[in-house]
Each structure stands twice: as C-alpha cells, then as structure tokens.
Amino acid sequence: MRVSVNTLDPHMTASVGSDLSVLSHIYPSLLLRAPDLKLQPALAKKWTMVDDVTWRFELAEGATFANGEKIDAAAVKWNLDRVRDKAVGARIAAWFELVSDVRVVDPLTVEVKTSSPYPAFADQLSMFFLLPPEWAKTHNPASETMSGGPYTVAENVPGDHITLKANPDYWGEKPAFDTVNFRTIPEIGSRVAALMAGEVDLVTGVPTTEIERINASGNAHADAVDSTRSMLVKINHQKNPMENLKFRQALNYAIDKEGIVQSIFDGKATVSNCQILSPDYFGYNPDLKPYPYDPDKAAQLLEESGVDLSTPLEVEVPVSTYLQGDEVTQIIASQLQEIGLTVKISEIDFGAFMNKQIKARDLAQMAVQGLAWPTIDADGMLTMFAPGNVYDYWNNADFGKLLDEGRATTDPEKRKTIYAEATKLMCDQAASVFLYQQPATFGVSNKVTWQPRGDDWVRAFDMSVKE
C-alpha cells in the first residue's frame, strides 16, 4: 500500500485504497462490489426496494463474529444506529443522512426507511462494515479488532505492515490464502523493486513509465485499466477572474488533454468527455465530447472575456497524491502560459490541501484534483458540485435544482435524463477543466492471478494462486 492504515474502525474512515481495503477482510458487509464493479451478495443474500423509501435485506443464516456474537438483523441495526449517532462522530455519517429508521423484522430480516428516495443506498452499503455490538462496548475499535470476516489480525505494526490470518470460524466461503500481508511502502521505486524481487505479489499506483520494465522482468506483469477517478482542474468561481464564462471556456480549449494522455501516460489514460463521470457511473452522459485542443480558439475567448491577462493565476496541486499529477500540473501551467496567462504552481501536502479546500474555504483559483465516488452513481459524484456542499466552489442554482430532481425519483430512465441535463450544464458552463480518467495502474506477481479493477479496492479475495 502507498499509505498506512489510519484507523481500524470502519465507521471512522472513507479511505478505500487503504483502511477500508484492509478492513474488508476483517469485518462483514451486507454487500460487496466485485472487480467487474457489480454488486454481489455478502451477509445480505437478497435485497429489495419495497417502495421508494424502504429497503429490505434478507441475511445469511449462522453468521457470527469470532467471539460468538451473532451477525444478525439486530447487529445490522446497531451498526446503522451507531454510525448515525452524532455523539459517535462517525467519519461516514453523511452516507446515511437520509436513513430515518431501521427496523428488525425478524432475526434474519432488516428494513431501512429513508426520508426521501435513495436509489444508490445498496451501492453505499458495499463499503459499510459491521462491528460486533457487545464487543464494541468494552473495546476500542480504532485500535482493536474482533473478526466477523474471512481473516483475523495476527500482527499490526503501524506504518509498516498488517498481517492477517485466515479466520477458522468464518461463516462464509473459505479464503484462498492462509496469510495476507499488507505492507506500507510509500515510495513508488521501493514498491516496484519489492514486486520485481518477489517480496510482494501486488502493487498499485505504478507510473506508466515503469510498466514496460516490470513486464520485461519475467517475475511480474503490469498494466492499467480506466479508473472511476476523474482528473480535473477544479475552478474556484468565487475568485477573480474565474467567474467569467469565456475565460473558463478558454482554459478548456488551452489544455491538450490527448497530448497529456499520450506523453505522460503512454496512452493508458482516457480523455474525459467533458464531464466528471466516467462510463462506469450510472448517469454518465455518452453524448458529450471533450473540448478540443485549440489554442487559437482559447486566445480568441481570452480576448473576448475582457480579463486582464497580467492577473496572476495560482494553480494548486497536492503533492504525491495523484498518479504523475505533479508532471501533469507542469504541462497545464506551461500550456496556459503559452496563451498569455501568468501562472504560479503551489505544491501542497494533501492534508493541508483538504483543510484549505473544506475547512478554510480558500481554494486557489485553480486546483488539480481527482474525484471519485464509491457508489459509482451520478447522485454522489455530482453532489460535490451542488450548492452548499463542502466541496463546491461553483454555486450554480440550476445545477442544484437538477440534482434535487434526480434524488426525488427512483425511476432509472428519469434519473438518466436529469443527469444528462446536469452534466451538459457543467460542460457548457465550463464548471471545471475536464482532463482525463486517472489510469488504475498495477503490477502483479506471476505467481498469482488478480482481476484489475478501477475503484481502488485492494483485496486478497480478488486474487488466487496461479495454477
């Protein structure tokens, strides 16, 4: 892993690529998302939307935690109540704001009521993991575990590794590996070296420049698939001159997205079709096309905008966060300078970047950022640009109204129509500079098979020993 696990409490983290990936081996969830990005049964063997605001889940029989506690409807209710309890302060509480009531129908059936339609609720549950209620009363889930999943924690050395052992009392399918070791190796060169030396079997976030070398090693193979994360230049519409539509459109014409894909990512990335949704998302708009690279058109729009081109522009980038993001930012700044703009790059630690964006509400005029939403649904992803959202710097009332309409119905076709209109509005208004889908790069030992996935999950149960 690129970063270490920060907490063992699954309700206190939303980090899929680290915390939740590890915890998915230890704790049960109602549903899981498979490598093909489709939902599959886990504790819930069947789930149905009874009406627009009621979900029913039918659970597997005989499921227990390692201490003997039952994983039943009462345990599910306790966990949903815990995560919504303001006194707990769960990091993922916002995922369940629409949940109004949880009812135990019988030991193996639970019903969840929502205050308004929540069509992506089942998708959200694929990353919600259950703690044992009685155990949690006398233990600290942030630093202790009590397994209800296929593995138990054998050793935890914070910042270095977490070793898991197969849970002999697991109620589900027997895991393929007796031992799973998650090592924290922040430096990419060290990760690649460990893979090629046979010390690890899977690494992610491999620079595309390393793929050929790994494939030539004879010990491992590497490649990339499109991820669900869209890269963009986020625009702070509250800072001059970013409120100017023609100026924002000029920025979109000035960036050579296809050139970035070819020169930085060796063609392993895909240019975004003028939206933050990728084709994997429900609500993706197939009718939109990218702004073409046209510096002459950009220069014309700049002139028509009336903006003083001597006005300095700042573009922020969180360092060592996005795949080759620092290199991409250099190209973006250079191409904006080519059309006469004065651009300053500010490199910033990711934690400081998030605090500046969310708490201080002081994002620079532009920021290179990658966005993804775990439900792979337009409702979640687009909400980051809705008026009042902590991530929003656009404040477009028409856009917010469309999202409200999308949430008011569970009819898939109506939702698609609404989200098509919402994504077109974002494109027409150049709400951001739409760049590319970040490639999900990986290197895998020749000793195992692993189905690549684009949503950041890293799981041993997506792997098997090569025969």
TrEMBL record:
Q: Note whether Signal occurs among the keywords.
A: yes
Q: What is this protein called?
A: ABC transporter substrate-binding protein
Q: What's the chief localization of this chain?
A: periplasm
Instruction: Please tell me the species this chain comes from.
Output: Tianweitania populi
The subcellular location is:
Periplasm
Top-level taxonomy: Bacteria, Pseudomonadati, Pseudomonadota, Alphaproteobacteria, Hyphomicrobiales
Similarity field: Belongs to the bacterial solute-binding protein 5 family.
- Recorded GO MF terms: peptide transmembrane transporter activity
Keywords from UniProt, A to Z, are: Signal, Transport
- Any idea where the Solute-binding protein family domain is? 38-387
Gene Ontology CC annotations of this record: ATP-binding cassette (ABC) transporter complex; outer membrane-bounded periplasmic space
Question: Which InterPro entries does the protein's record reference?
Answer: Peptide/Ni-bd (IPR030678), SBP_5 (IPR039424), SBP_5_dom (IPR000914)
| A Pfam match | SBP_bac_5
Q: Which GO terms describe its biological process?
A: peptide transport
